[in-house]
Amino acid sequence: MRSPALRTSAVLSVVGAMLLLATADAAPPTLSHLFPAGGQRGTKVVVTCTGNLAPWPVSVNAPGVDVVPSQEAGKLEVSIPADLATDRVWIRLFNAEGATAAVPFMIGGLPEVRDAEPNNTLRNAQAIAETGVIINGVLEGADVDGFAVAMTAGQTLVADLDANTELGSPMDAILQVASSDGTVLAENHDDVELDPRLAFTAKKAGTYIVRLFAFSSMPDTTIAFHGGANYIYRLTLTTGPYMSHAVPLSVAQDNPGTVEVFGWNLPPGTRLPVAPLAVAELESLADLRNSPAARLGFVFAPNIASSARVRLAPHAALPGLAVSDANNPPVLTPPIAVTGRLQLPRQTDLFRVPLKKGQRVVIAAEGRNVESPLQVVLRLSDPGRNGGRQRARSGSRAGDDRDPRRGR
Question: How far apart are CA 239 and CA 51, in angstroms?
């Protein structure tokens, strides 16, 4: 016969289980991801939610877009304004018991399609009737997704993937452009952090295959393709104008004006206005790089793929690229923001910064933060011949995404 203590333990275990069941019935919803993970401005998109969503419907918080829960459980109807000045909004579901984590929903300017399986071989690659689309897909299992694109000689195709960096998909993807017989003509692995992007110019007319596959973003001892229900991506394919960045990277908040945009298939000298980002997003201030009064601006146009963000600085900002002359370095009087470009090996840009004795100043250089491959080094020296005595030095190391900054 079991002891009273054991019997008491058994009773308590049953009661505990009943309490857990009661709590589960009234639990807040959970949301891991959305599919498709974005939509085109000026359209309505039906989105499927993945998570614990019972009971349905739930309430939705999604500043910037209009979201209505569908009568079908787990579906949302997302209406996107045609002039929405952002590339991303955040969607959160909630009920009386609590709320989910916020999940990103990307905003684009091109028509959207979905990948159609099977499309994992050269022969069954999904035909893309016209370039200038965003493909919403999932790499299920050890999958390869292929898309067939017809190109004329001299055309430049831009293939740009959003997956790990913006959507949090646990994938480290590779993009390839191959000929119809499978010869790899172009490849990219990590262009924007773990997400690939490439531009390919066709030497002759024909059908080319854009292939996409992925490894896990958390490497282990295996070398194999990975996939899963959460390996969600958005692939931009276009032979039209594509914007990669804007110059300058910072503009004055009180007069943002226009910036010059760069990328592929853009007419030289293309300039676009800077609008305040439609959905407020705060940048980290932990390293004192940005003023608390700084905001984000947004650059986009209906006929140009992709977009760019710039900083709306609460102080002066040079209107273009800073040109450094070693014999007569430009004078930068704080507070000020400048945009430069290191184009040559071993190039060093020099600037004079007038400071008073005892004055404290934060000097920050951003490269990795603005999707540049630069590993930036900052050096602060006393005035004098050959730069004077070095007073401070800071630099990011290879493989380190952090940018240098100095407070003096």
Answer: 37
Instruction: Give the integer Cα–Cα distance in Å for 172 and 122.
Output: 22
Q: What is the sign of the dihedral through the CA atoms of 288, 365, 331 and 259? A: negative
Sign of the CA dihedral with 48 first, then 52, 57, and 61 last: negative
pLDDT along the chain (408 residues), means of 10: 38 40 67 98 98 94 97 97 97 95 97 96 94 96 94 98 96 97 96 94 98 93 90 98 95 95 97 94 57 88 95 91 87 92 88 90 76 78 67 59 49
Dihedral (Cα; 64, 70, 76, 81), 10-degree rounding: -30
Find the domain containing 258 and state its range: 243-407
- Which tokens is 152 given? 């004329």
Q: Is the dihedral of CA 382, 388, 391, 393 positive or negative?
A: positive
**Residues 184 and 296 grouped into a single domain:** no
Q: What angle is formed at CA 88 by the lines to CA 284 and CA 128, rounded to 5 degrees?
A: 140
Q: Which residue has the tokens 């900052």?
A: 378
Beta strands in 239-301 (DSSP E): 242-247, 250-252, 258-264, 271-273, 275-276, 295-299
Tell me the residue length of the chain.
Answer: 408
Q: Which residues of 132-154 are buried (b: 16+ CB within 10 A; e: fewer)?
A: bbbbbbbbeeebbbbbbbbbeee
Out of 81, 108, 135, pick the residue that ends a domain: 108
Q: What's the confidence (pLDDT) of residue 40?
A: 98
- Global confidence as pTM: 0.86
Q: Are 123 and 47 within one domain?
A: no
Going by C-alpha positions, the residue among 156, 165, 311 that lies closest to residue 242 is 156
